[in-house]
Amino acid sequence: PRINMSIKKSICYGFTLIELMITLSIASILLSVAVPSYRSFVQDSLLITQSNNFYFALALAKSEAIKRNTRITICPSTSGTNCTASNIWSNGWVVFVDNNNSRTIDAGEEILQVSYAFSGGNTLKTSLAGTIMFRPDGFSPGSAATFSLCDDRGSNYSKSIVLSNQGRFRTETGTGSCS
Question: What is the pTM of this model?
């Protein structure tokens, strides 16, 4: 029998120190550009989500008022069971059937939606303190207001929801009062 005594060559693959330093330099440059953009993206997404939540609460209140042929009220609330006389809506709100038109949640009145405080330190406020009531015809007399949703970047990045006495609402960007 023959014995094969050949020596196998081993090949080592890897990076040189210079290649590693160049790769780390490029990665750090890319991260310094990407991280601020990502933070802005996250803040914009949070504002859009929170704005949409309030917009859909208004839409729910209006559509339920028309559908049920009764008054539906939406009010700021920190507990989810009582209204607060505040112009700060970012602490939460409640949409409820207001059978006796008292603009407060009374025994036996159905709560349709509860929203709790916003995350991220964003604020939703308006000059109108108190409640918004939609009548069976969809109008909201005495409720004309602009709701401004702001984060720490200020008015240029704000989202606003403008509500008219006719019960119409629309969104705007960069027009909110964040002071």
Answer: 0.80
